[in-house]
Amino acid sequence: MLVSWLLNFCLGVLLTLFSPWVLFRMIVQGKDRTGWRERLFGAVPPRESDRPCVWLHAVSVGEVLQLQPVLDGLAAEHPDCEFVISTTTVTGHEVARKKYPEYRVIFTPLDFSWAVNRALRRIAPAALVLVELELWPNLILSTARQGIPVLLINGRIGERSYRGYRRFRPVMRHILAKLSLCAVQNETYAERLRVLGADPAKVVVTGSIKFDRIDIRRDNPRTAELRRAFDLHPTETVFIAGSTQAPEEQFALDTYLALRPKHPNLRLVLVPRHKERFDEVARLVEETHGLPLVRRSGRMVDGGRWTVDESNAKSVSPSSILQPLPSVLSTEYSALSTQHSSLPTPILLLDTLGELAACWGLADIAFVGGSLTNRGGQNMIEPAGYGAAVMFGPNTWNFRDVVEMLLTGDAARIVRSAADLTEQVAWLLDHPAEAASLGQQAQQLVLAQQGATRRTVELIGRSLAVRKIAKPKAA
């Protein structure tokens, strides 16, 4: 109990220090206004049945989407189970509610002992499953104290996190010792957890479930819908800059403008990493560069020039997330082109949530963002699975193992600057056979890594087989 109250004190101090920033986001920016009863007090809706329940915690959108194959496997193997999904971010919560309407979705309680314990009483899980490495000390300690297995799946620990955790090795050892299972992506991560104090007998290398949820079919319905919505033709070469941060969109635009005269069939799709920047990137295209733009969320024709339908774009609700939007672009643009033969081909902006995975299926050439900034890179497995010619910057420590696999297999390229991006894309456009070979090699490497979901579901199932639970309490 002393450890729990020390943790409460430390978290309380941090929350107090950051409260001005939290209030600014809530009041001025209109963000993070929901879910505070669940976060601060653990006031999640109580379960009403006494069926076995698995509580799966995912931080944000990426982890939420990773759960799909695991949930499918668990539901098939354990049809008597209920599933509760918790997220840390509002965006993750929105996507989870739309993606998994059949399951209960909650906000993860902040790591105060009273919030955690109340949520545990109301959910009464047979197991708590943490995705990747989201270590909330009070959540783990309280859950284990009640005899509930705590399982880490798809575990990963980057070099930076590992160096930081090593400074608090006694604390980490105390927390990791409570985990019933550490199912990790590779042997490097496994060894790091052992060094930090995890029980070697409970550390298992399963591979990454990220590879199992990868769709390699470019004709899948969601990708086909995006192709229709963006009016992309088979003769066009699609260059996608996805999961980007500033100034990576500018780099992609510079590349497109430099190469378009020689390659008139080149199309550019921009996909900013954060929804807060959708309007900013739209202004960059339209106002800074004076280029026509089509937004996935809404568009209109005004005076012979493509502009953004701001009222439509800003009114996109969570109910539209992951749903096909009607495509009127082809008819409108064809009619407009007849009147204005010199009208430039529009830049395309994917400004909806949860569609990037399908959008990568349009790419002939893919630049994965957050890699020419200090973000540490984003997921490059999805474009690799579709067989796109994949590029990323040098700052990819968040995906070090995937990057090493792709580079060792001659299945991706590193770009080190804006000028290098233009040079690399130009080379791929001038050598289409080599570009196709690069993509095919990437796709084969992804296929060779699949199978982690099956192993993960089996391990979770073993914990469920030995855990009996009481009826949830409404306290």
Low-confidence stretches: 299-342
Total helix count? Answer: 20
Number of domain modules: 2
Mean pLDDT: 85
CATH homologous superfamily (4th level) name of the largest domain: Glycogen Phosphorylase B
The Cα radius of gyration reads: 24 Å
Q: If strands are numbered along the chain, what order do they take across the biggest sheet?
A: 3-2-1-4-5-6-7
Supply the helix-strand structural class.
alpha/beta
CATH architectural name of the largest domain: 3-Layer(aba) Sandwich
Distance between the termini: 20 Å
Total count of strands: 16
Quaternary assembly: single chain
* Overall geometry: globular
- Please state roughly what percent of the residues sit in beta strands, choosing from under 5%, 5-15%, 15-25%, 25-35%, 35-45% or over 45%: 5-15%
CATH topology of the largest domain: Rossmann fold
Q: Portion of residues in helices?
A: 40-55%
Biggest sheet, open or closed, and with what strands and sense?
7 strands, parallel
Provide the CATH top-level class of the largest domain: Alpha Beta
